[in-house]
Design a protein that fits this description.
about 50% helix
């Protein structure tokens, strides 16, 4: 006797189960009994059904999606075919009339070949596709929550890549996540309890004090790292959890452990929706519902147990001991190549759904159980944290707060996390200081104890023209650091863990103390060995302007790395920009000789102001002379004549000018050098403040680059 395989869907009835419900859920309970009763008969006709066990609890949450359609348009600028105009566009359909539903307590797995639309569907359900680009509806208990703040509060999205700070331990990583996702009103002891519960739930107790690690630091295993990534996003106990291929790159055992953790999360009352690529037989047993996609179309929707029956009706029997998912995924491309293509699969799936369920996807789209308001209140009362909000605060999608904590608290936590991770990598600071020391010693040996001759003055100018852009170039190590952090920033801000402004402020605050040591080392070595003037007062200002230059350079590099999220391109743009700034800073071409159409760049150049500041600090002394008597002939055609001839020429020059000029007469002071360089408009303190302000200005530009340039959604 062949058992009719009926598809279990989200059950919302209350009270005694109907006969249809008993038959519908029969398969799932038989599976459970088979794992608990060792001597159970394999004959389905003699299986014992425990009626009391089939009393299904009311489903509190149903995520339904209907007729989802998503297309992208790409231009064809290099198509020289005569059949199409050069500027014609290519439209590709990534999702085509996809429908389905997922319930709390269940895992919905989205499968398909590469390019079938798995990740696109997960992004669409998670609100990561621009609203104007996605057609169809996504509802939670009948209410449209797509693109709403409520969805961000009650859901979580786990990306495919493990984006974590390498030098934080597992416990610290989850603790910082709790600081972001749980409100400040929660006592620290409660947050720690939640972290410990998540550690136990994820099976990470033995690794809680182990650092995450990276290529250069030994840390947790790949499977443990993936579970930590999941733990970050479930710290607030979300109602809906989306995951993009959580088992990708893991071995069979690690992948099974990850899905086993997801099963426990679902059983705690969450909806789990994930994409997965060729799951093992053990993983299939943990899945509740499947959606198989082909070229963006839904070719199967049902439980794993119903898939063999589905394929049998289609005319393809699964061989014994064959992995049913692998068989189906291998079969779909073959059917795609037929004359009917994917359409035959889609039509057969729709017909099979109607014949076996008597219910279409659209009819099941709106649940008849609890409203979203009632379900959230019930869920919170049963222990769901939902970012610490009470059910009353989540009763309306319009009244949900975007962020859990105030901005200053976010800034403090971000700065604390960054500093803790940075302090545990002393090689970074050590390498920076070592490079600064090598550069400073090189300059010290080249420009050792410069004198006050015309050559000494010229060498001082070249020294200052070198050190200012060098402080900018020494900040290039910030490029890879931020670009690596950028993806962590995108992941965390996608779910409103903190504000972009809080991130920028914390990033700026932690940068300030990091620049103190390099500035002091560089200034201490070069100031005294080169023989710069000013004594202690001049040294203090020299330290300040070097620090301001590092700050401005760090801000420029940070802004460009935020604007250009590619390491090599960021290096190229930064180097080119600093070179342009140096060219128009006033050293190579003085201000009065810069073409009028480029003079604007001279004034916005961040290199101009620290360069002028160090020159003023060095040469702003009318009593200091750099050209005396016969030194006026140095560097000219007369520089090679004898000193006697130079004295005679000087006397002749005195007679012609009617002014007594001797070998001790000062002909050019430091102030004259400043005038010659066109540095007469600002004081050194003005230049210092402008340099500091330019660093702040580029941090503001960095904020807008992140705010408008970091796309968390598909367009």
């Amino acid at each position: 006797m062949q058992r009719a395989l009926e598809e279990p869907h989200c059950t919302i009835s209350v009270g005694s189960p109907t006969l249809v419900e008993l038959l519908t859920d029969c398969d799932s309970f038989r599976k459970e009994d088979s794992s608990s009763v060792p001597n159970r008969s394999d004959d389905p006709a003699h299986s014992i059904i425990h009626v009391e066990a089939l009393h299904v609890k009311p489903v509190r949450f149903v995520l339904a999606f209907n007729n989802l359609e998503y297309k992208v348009t790409s231009p064809r600028w290099f198509d020289f075919s005569r059949r199409r105009p050069r500027s014609s566009n290519t439209v590709k359909t990534l999702l085509d009339d996809v429908s389905g539903e997922a319930c709390d307590g269940n895992i919905l797995a989205v499968l398909g070949a590469s390019g079938a639309g798995k990740s696109t569907l997960i992004d669409a359900l998670a609100g990561r596709v621009a609203k104007e680009s996605l057609r169809g509806s996504v509802t939670l208990n009948g209410e449209n929550v797509l693109q709403s703040q409520l969805l961000k509060v009650i859901s979580a999205y786990v990306m495919q890549d493990d984006l974590l700070f390498p030098m934080l331990t597992v416990k610290e990583t989850l603790m910082f996540a709790s600081e972001f996702r749980l409100p400040r009103s929660f006592p620290k002891s409660k947050k720690m309890e939640r972290v410990q519960a998540v550690i136990d739930q994820l099976g990470l107790r033995n690794a809680e004090d182990t650092v995450i690690g990276d290529e250069g630091h030994r840390g947790v295993s790949g499977g443990e790292r993936r579970r930590v990534s999941i733990g970050i996003d479930i710290i607030h106990d979300p109602i809906v959890l989306f995951l993009d291929e959580p088992t990708s790159g893991l071995d069979s055992t690690s992948a099974f452990m990850v899905v086993k953790v997801l099963k426990r999360i679902a059983q705690s009352g969450s909806i789990v929706v994930m994409s997965i690529h060729q799951p093992s037989t053990r993983i299939i047993e943990l899945l509740d519902r499947l959606i198989i996609l082909s070229q963006g179309k839904n070719v199967f929707s049902g439980s794993p147990a119903s898939l063999p029956h589905f394929l049998s009706k289609l005319g393809h029997t699964i061989p014994e001991k064959e992995n049913i998912i692998e068989f189906a995924l291998d079969l779909v491309p073959k059917l795609e190549g037929s004359t009917e293509g994917t359409r035959e699969l889609v039509e057969f799936n729709e017909k099979w759904q109607l014949d076996n369920l008597g219910l279409s996807q659209s009819a099941r789209a709106t649940p008849q159980g609890l409203s979203l308001k009632e379900a959230i209140i019930e869920s919170v009362s049963r222990g769901k944290l939902v970012s610490g909000s009470s059910g009353a605060n989540l009763t309306s999608t319009e009244t949900v707060s975007s962020y859990t904590n105030p901005s200053l608290f976010e800034t403090f936590i971000l700065a604390k996390r960054y500093m803790k991770n940075w302090i545990r990598m002393p090689e970074l600071l050590g390498t920076r200081i070592a490079i600064v020391m090598v550069t400073a010693f090189l300059l010290a040996t080249v420009y050792w104890k410069l004198d006050n001759t015309p050559k000494g003055a010229q060498e001082r100018l070249t020294f200052f023209a070198f050190i200012v852009p060098t402080t900018f170039y020494l900040c290039l190590d910030n490029v890879p650091v931020f670009i690596q952090e950028r993806y962590i920033f995108l992941r965390e801000t996608t779910r409103n863990a903190y504000r972009t402004s809080s991130y920028v402020m914390s990033h700026s605050l932690v940068s300030l103390p990091q620049l103190i040591a390099p500035s002091l080392v560089f200034s201490s070595i070069t100031f005294w060995t080169v023989g710069l003037r000013g004594g202690l007062e001049g040294f203090v200002f020299y330290c300040l302007i070097i620090y301001a230059s590092f700050w401005s350079g760090s801000s420029v590099v940070t802004f460009i790395s935020g604007l250009v999220p590619h390491i090599m391109l960021s290096y190229m743009v930064t180097i080119a920009y600093v070179a342009y700034c140096l060219l128009l800073s006033g050293f190579y071409v003085v201000r009065d000789r810069i073409p009028s159409y480029w003079i604007w760049f001279h004034y916005i150049s961040p290199v101009k102001y620290p360069y002028e500041a160090v020159l003023i600090n060095e040469f702003d002394d009318p009593s200091r002379c750099f050209v005396k008597g016969v030194q006026v002939f140095d560097g000219t055609l007369l520089g090679g004549v004898s000193d006697v001839k130079k004295v005679e020429l000087l006397e002749t020059l005195s007679t012609s000018l009617s002014r007594r000029i001797t070998q001790s007469t000062c002909l050019k002071t430091g102030y004259d050098l400043l005038t010659q360089q066109g540095i007469t408009q600002l004081s050194k303190w003005d230049c210092l403040w402008i340099t500091l302000a330019s660093g702040l200005f580029f941090r503001i530009l960095f904020y807008f680059a992140l705010l408008f340039g970091s796309k968390n959604k598909r367009t």
